[in-house]
Amino acid sequence: MAGAGDGNRFMRNFRKVLPWYLFITPASLMLLTLMAYPLFDTLRLSLFKWGGLGPQSFIGLKNFSKLFGDEIFWRALGNSFVFAIVVPFFTVSIGLFLGVAISRRMKGWQVYRIAFFIPVMMSGVVVATLWANMFEFNHGLFNTVLRGIGLDALAQNWLGDRNVALISVMLVPIWQSVGFPMIVLLAAIEGIPQDMHDAATMDGVNEWQRIWGLIVPLIKPVLASITMLSIIGAMKVFDIVLVMTKGGPAFSTQVLGYYLFETAFRSGYFGYGSAIAVVMFVVVFAIAYAYVRGVRIESVEY
Amino acid sequence: MAADRLTSRSVGGSVGGDRTLGWWAGSSLRPIIYGILIVGALVQVYPIFFLLMNTLKTDTQILNTPFSLPTGFSMAPFIDVWTGDRTGMFFGRYFFNSAIVLAATIVLMLAISCLCGYAMARGQFPGNGTLHQALLLSLAVPAHALAIPLYFFVGSLGLRNSLFGLTLVYAALGAPFTIILMRAYFMHMPIELEEAARIDGCGRLGVFLRIVMPISRGPIAGMAIININWIWSELFFSLILMNKADVRTLPLAIALYKPAPMTVETVLALQYAAMALATIPVLILFFLFQRQIASGMTMGAFK
Q1: Mean pLDDT over all residues of chain B?
Q2: Which residue has the higher pLDDT, B72 or A124?
Q3: Residue A302 Cα to chain centre, angstroms
Q4: At residue A116, does pLDDT exceed 90?
Q5: Residues of B with CB below 8 A from A94's CB?
Q6: What is the pLDDT of residue B300?
Q7: Are A210 and B22 a contacting pair at CB < 8 A?
């Protein structure tokens, strides 16, 4: 600011933009050091062999070639995809059903809205611990009920049987998060102007036609965005797996996030772990990119 | 904000015209749909009720008669987990750790995000567009992909096992989304007041602090509310960065607490009490700010 007095154009401009740069400095510094740098460092580390201490040795793409031959990695990737398909499919479709029902003011709609939304607010660890207790083989709620009504044969080792564990684990995020698409889709449905409903009524549509012909087409952009958010959320699942199964039994519930955690922070293979992180990054980024390209978010104004 | 308008309708209950009339009237599907709604609502609420009830039962009751109601109310299990006398886990401490990290993160994140979002909305400077693009891109980066370098970087700053270190990480993770939404809000805010203050000789920072911040209390509170949820529940970074027992956050402590049932004693109830400790504040918050939470969550998804 030494040249405050001179009429130099550059200085005038500089003085004009300087406050803005000062405004963005704290956020930019934090994002550069705690997001941008770690992201690039993950990419770099994925090319090294490193145990966390001592020298990092450059090994090119060896981590990745090892990864592609790693059976557990494929299990984790596959399970993550199963998660990312099954969980959003149920949460979004149940959420849509609930959103429509509540927007049509079915009796007791206020109660349904609260009941389905409360679990969304709870912490994933609490929900997972609670469900792990209910799934417990000897004294868990589910098996107690099944045995109580004489269906002993249906009592499962919900989290201990490799054929059942993934399904059990996936039930939990579905239970927890149906309220999220519900509340968002409900807002979108409520945003449809009444005169469009009136016009449809005049045309004598039944409820089924109203849902599929009027409501769903009008809320499509929101439906797409909530689906993408749910897919990305399911791709990142971690808490539930850590608390309920630790990826077992026999890797049947292993997912990318947990495998990354185990590889890097439990076994100390930080280079190899970084390679898993890179795969995770690429997959999530690709989903987001496909969404942005495919859907072209038009802001809907009715 | 668009989302605000949308949800206030649903809450206001301005139900016009045919809304309730046409719904499957006379159709045989109607009872089925009601059945699904009612059973669904029970399935959603019962586990939470189960959680709260189990804080007051003995192990025998929890394991053998899961549906029975507790015989009386007692604060004992809550006091036990809070003080850690019987568990060796000091949940009172973890609760405060979580509360401190939550409050500090919210303050730090909102401060840097409002400043940055305001500059991006009002300022014309080289790099503004690039910054916006970068922020949008960063939304598609899973936090797991940052974990390994962050672990070492935070360690090199000496901030592992520090509530401040965890706060920095959380604030950075939440900032892009908050900046983008605050920027959008500031762009739609009328500029006249700010211009008047500028003419009166107020500097940029003065305008920001004295004019912009006070009139933006609503949206700022909204951003706080939608961030509270994930910060209170966050496990991954807490697990990585907090290795010492006395700096654990509540979710981490709950994830690590694995009591074995003793049947004769009351051990399981303590675990449920710890879970209730994490859940009850959230439930209170939910009932106080239902409308703001719904509109905040909606706001995020509409972007």
Answers
A1: 85
A2: A124
A3: 29
A4: yes
A5: 40
A6: 63
A7: yes
Residues 192 to 211 of B: which have CB under 8 A from any A CB?
203-205, 208
Lowest mean pLDDT among A49-53, A190-194, B60-64, B174-178: B60-64
pLDDT band at B7 (very low <50, low <70, confident <90, very high): very low
Question: Which CATH number do you get for residue B257?
Answer: 1.10.3720.10
Given this model, what pLDDT does residue B274 score?
92
Q: Look over chain A and give the mean of its residue pLDDT values, rounded to a whole number.
A: 88
Out of A19-23, A103-107, A268-272, B133-137, least confident range: A103-107
Query: Does residue B137 sit within a domain?
Result: yes
Asked if residue B264 belongs to a domain, the reply is yes
Best residue in A13, A16, A24 for a mutation probing chain B (most B CBs within 10 Å): A24
Q: ipTM, 2 decimals?
A: 0.88
Give the H or E element holding residue B227: helix B217-233
A-chain residue closest to B64, CA distance: A139
Asked if the model's pLDDT at residue B12 lies above 80, the reply is no
Domains in chain A, start-ordered, CATH in brackets?
1-32 (no CATH), 62-295 (1.10.3720.10)
Q: How many domains does chain B have?
A: 1
Which range marks the domain in which residue B227 is found?
A: 91-302
Alpha helices (H) along B19-146: 29-54, 59-64, 76-83, 91-122, 128-138
pTM as predicted: 0.89
Q: How far off is chain A from B78, nearest CA to CA, in Å?
A: 16
Q: What integer is the mean pLDDT of A182-191? A: 90
Write out residues 225-284 of B within 8 Å (CB-CB) of A.
Answer: 229, 232-233, 235-236, 239-240, 250-252, 254-255, 261, 268, 271, 275, 278-279, 282-283
Tokens representing A265 are 């922070």
Closest to A273 (Cβ–Cβ): which among B51, B148, B235? B148
CA distance A162 to B221: 45
Are the beta carbons of B296 and B222 closer than 8 angstroms? yes
Each residue of A139-167: pLDDT tens digit?
888 888 888 888 877 888 888 888 899 99
Tokens linked to A236: 């990142």
HEC string for chain A: CCCCCCCCHHHHHHHHHHHHHHHHHHHHHHHHHHHHHHHHHHHHHCCEECCCCCCCEECCCHHHHHHHCCHHHHHHHHHHHHHHHHHHHHHHHHHHHHHHHHHCCCCCHHHHHHHHHHHHHCCHHHHHHHHHHHHCCCCCHHHHHHHHCCCHHHCCCCCCCCCCHHHHHHHHHHHHHCHHHHHHHHHHHHCCCHHHHHHHHHCCCCHHHHHHHHHHHHCHHHHHHHHHHHHHHHHCCCHHHHHHCCCCCCCCCCCHHHHHHHHHHHCCCHHHHHHHHHHHHHHHHHHHHHHHHHHCCCCCCC
Nearest by CB to B168, which of A19, A34, A41?
A34
> For B209-236, what is each residue's pLDDT tens digit?
988 999 888 889 888 988 998 999 999 9
Is B298 close to A183, i.e. CB distance below 8 A? yes
Q: Look at residue B50 in the predicted model and tell me its pLDDT.
A: 92
